[in-house]
Amino acid sequence: MGKRNAFDEIMGFSGAAPPRPALAALGEWLADTPEHELRRRQEAAETTFRQLGITFAVYGESEASERIIPFDIVPRVFLKSEWDRLSEGLVQRVEAINAFLDDIYGARRILDEGVLPADLVLGNDQFRPEIAGIRPPHGIAAHICGIDLVRTGPDEFFVLEDNARTPSGVSYMLENREAMLRLCPELFRELRVAAVDSYPDLLLETMKSVAPHGAGPTPRCVVLTPGHYNSAYYEHSFLADSMGVELVEGADLIVDDDVVWMRTIEGLVKVDVIYRRIDDDYLDPLVFRIDSALGVPGLIAAYAAGNVAIINAPGNGIADDKAIYSYMPEIVKFYNGAEAKLPNVETFRCREPSALTYVLENLPELVVKLVDGSGGYGMLVGPTASKAEIETFRAALIAEPQRYIAQPTLALSTVPTMADQGLAPRHVDFRPFVLSGSDGVRVVPGGLTRVALKEGSLVVNSSQGGGTKDSFVLMDDGASGSAQSQSADGQTQTMGSMSQNQGGAA
Amino acid sequence: MRLAIDHRTLYRFSAPQRRLVQMLRMTPQNHHDQTVASWRIDVDCDATMRDAHDGFGNATTMLYVAGPIDAIEISVTGEVVTSHSSGELHGTNEVFPAALFLRATAATRADPAIARFAEDTAGGRATTEALHRIAQSLHDRFAPDTSRPKPGLAAGDAFAYDTGTARDLAQIFLVAARHLGAPARYVSGYRLSDDAGLSTPHGWAEAFVAGVGWLGFDPSVGRSPDDNYVRVAVALDSTGAAAVAGARLGEADEVIEVDIGVSESQ
């Protein structure tokens, strides 16, 4: 195979100036803004994040450390046409995920017809027999999906991972945009960027749309958090705040007569929709882990009775399991009738002997992952791994092949990123957020871009030294070629009612 | 046979509780060899109850009690007409393919000692005869322990003792059968027994043999369940099929008294 440069999303395949024609304005901005100025703005953004407390905990480190995720000032940009095609693929995939969940906890047609090996589902810990047979209100289980993608060319996207449980990171999408609007207002005059700040409203609409039928015209929605010790607590409170709904812990809710109630100073208030950020295992001690003090006893009974919507539904882990992932193209085809518009990364299932043989022979070129791992833990990146690391994985693969999948290392796209020596290309991935309500599936025009800050690194996880960037979705392809002169006060323009402006309130 | 069940569970709390929420799996369902003639669940205080089914298809009753409450008695009474088909089960409410019951749980994790025992006893294949040998062999190997089972004791740990409760022997059986490739599940229910002292809920096992179907095994007596048994709930382990899963609000110790009467009614 000929080695070709990674696609740089701003500079194109050449990786150097001139930038892609449609992004000439952004290229000029990069060239014209002094490096010290970019660094100053970046530091200002990170200071804000630290003050807000947008931190995460690094697991596996000796002292419990809270860090902010590094922020990079250079945005990544999607052209409108690229985004539109990507969105179609995302909608199709998320519709299939919902159809799969409805089927797998119901009739299990997909197993009867032999599309998926039955043992892959029935023997999978992520398939929760405890909630089988319960149909969520409106038949929707995956209300909020974060689909992790990588890109190798302008229209070449591959799904790396589906997240159908409690995908996090949306607060970064929103806070990164806020910071960019404040620190780089001139960019929003040069480029017509679709707004993301309506996300909380869309989320609330989605929640209300899936309220149980008896909930009445103004269903009560809440966000359920495990508490402030959780590493994503900032996001929980941020979302509750921006939606204008209560942030509750398990102890604030009770179930009586199969109905969920919230304790308030005015007495008990009926709850119709719960956006929970608590894992299934801890959701209801009567059904899942009996030692859980985080959950709500009786919640699953209320859910089974059809009296409350749980977002996302319990049991969704079976849809984003890495072993199931490799069958997603077949799953999409089974429910949608058409080929998947968004391809998977080629995946070798090590449970299959021929795949295992291939993987063992090609470990230095492959990425090997635990089927049930997440956050970049328990992962081998062959090309950057030491001999010893490769041998450790070889032994693990031979011992328990069914726990692993392997994928080729792709030439992941890069975006110019502020490094020690100045702007340099760094690999990125992308997590768009897809909302499914009773009125359809919506893709929010933006998402979370994660960037591997180490040169050449392909691991973007925040726990492994990754950072984030803002993700611009342009509202048209043809950027105006001529650079606009910047007005002194930076407040003079609006680019149409839908576009992002400095006020932030579209 | 016509069996009369009288199952009383009394909870006493050292301090009043603000709320009590319980899920009861205490209602048997009909199958070919079991017809529920009458059945009722009563509690001795103000409570709301809601009937439903759990994911395994077991009948459940949600019990909600608003406090303050310092004691509650749940009494279950009923009559069930039973027969038997030599251990074979027919007409049971099957909501999953049998293969689901190959799955291990925390209490029924694969265990090397049980695996060796299973292979030695069965000779490798999970035939009906081999499974009977396993049940018989467990019965012979362990002296009966009729005290309350230790909470959370896993099958692998229980296998190291020389006495075993019915629950522990059934869970060891599950691990052994699954090791041999036979789907196996825990059953909670009642058994008419000669020893008058027996007042704990009973538990046994069922295993699936290809070409035959689901079969019952009671390693605590070394035989298949017959018309002395009332089958109530099934799951992957004893916790999943437990008669009561409960939570209460308030700091306190609890004392539980269980009294089970199973008799032949005239």
From TrEMBL, chain A:
InterPro entries: ATP-dep_Glu-Cys_Ligase-2 (IPR051680), CP_ATPgrasp_2 (IPR025841), UCP005522 (IPR016450)
Disordered: region residues: 470-506
Biased composition, class Polar residues, residue ranges: 492-506
Pfam families: CP_ATPgrasp_2
SUPFAM superfamilies: Glutathione synthetase ATP-binding domain-like
UniProt superkingdom: Bacteria
The Circularly permuted ATP-grasp type domain, residue ranges: 75-452
Biased segments, Low complexity type: 476-491
Protein name per UniProt: Circularly permuted type 2 ATP-grasp protein
Organism this protein belongs to: Sphingomonas oligophenolica
UniProtKB/TrEMBL annotation, chain B:
Domain Transglutaminase-like span(s) in chain numbering: 158-221
Lineage top rank: taxon: Bacteria
Protein name (record): Transglutaminase family protein
